Amino acid sequence: MTSVLKYTALISLALLLNSCSKDDDGGQNCPVVISGWEYFPVDSGMTRYYQVDSVYWDPFTGVHDTVSYELKETIAGDFIDNQGRTAQRIERFRKDLSGNWMIYKVWSAVRTNTTAENVEDNIRILKLTFPCSTGVNWNGNAYNALGEKTFEYTACNVSGSSYSLQFTQTSTVNQDDEPGNLLNDRNDLEKYAANIGMYYRLNSFVEFNFISGDTVSGFIYTEKLTSYTP
Predict the structure, then answer these.
(1) Is 189 domain-assigned?
(2) Domain carrying residue 90
């Protein structure tokens, strides 16, 4: 994280702490202030359950299909990473047709005072910066070789929901700053709930027929939180 970004984050927090207003009785109305760490819990045993839907279009066969399944993600415990930091082992399971949870991926996570990182499929991604402040952006690929990609907070400390779950404080990170056009559209974003973690993920890229506007190829992948255990 650059010194400029650290400075901006500290200024944003200071402004938030001082953004109180007077109520009708002369008291103080202050926004609820959280550090931002709450959006990325690291407690062992935390388990999140997701409904996954993956829609794809095959341009060669014309097939348009949807694959759906249940996903479980568990913080399995701590370990020391190659930088000497306390990290977390993240185990991801898919439920098979018999209703059994089968592990299929192992990721890891690190939360520092100013950032949150995930290693997903051996790629380290700078997921969040702290504190959360709308408009703050950073290079999500700062710790890998994939090339610069701008992540940006588009919402901070607002209410949100997923299925029957209601959250009082959430944040949204837009992970792609490239606007769509008549030929294709890409959309990558994640939403986080305080003390729960990620509750929504969207990764999509679709290509259109220039004449009809119909989708001819691409995919739309979503993860939506259905329940969790702290």
Answers:
(1) yes
(2) 34-229
SS3 letters for 195-216? CCEEEEEEEEEEEECCCCCCEE
In sign, the C-alpha dihedral spanning 74, 111, 142, 132 is positive
Name the region of 199 (left: φ>0; alpha: ψ -120 to 50; beta: rest): alpha
pTM of the predicted model, to two decimals? 0.84
Q: Is residue 171 part of a domain?
A: yes
Question: For 24, phi and psi rounded to 5 degrees?
Answer: -65, -25
* Domain count within the chain: 1
CA nearest neighbour of 227 among 6, 2, 47: 47
β-bridge mates for residue 49, sequence order = 72, 227
What does pLDDT average to in each consecutive run of 10 residues of the chain (230 residues)? 43 42 46 78 98 92 90 98 97 96 97 98 97 96 96 97 98 86 90 98 92 89 97
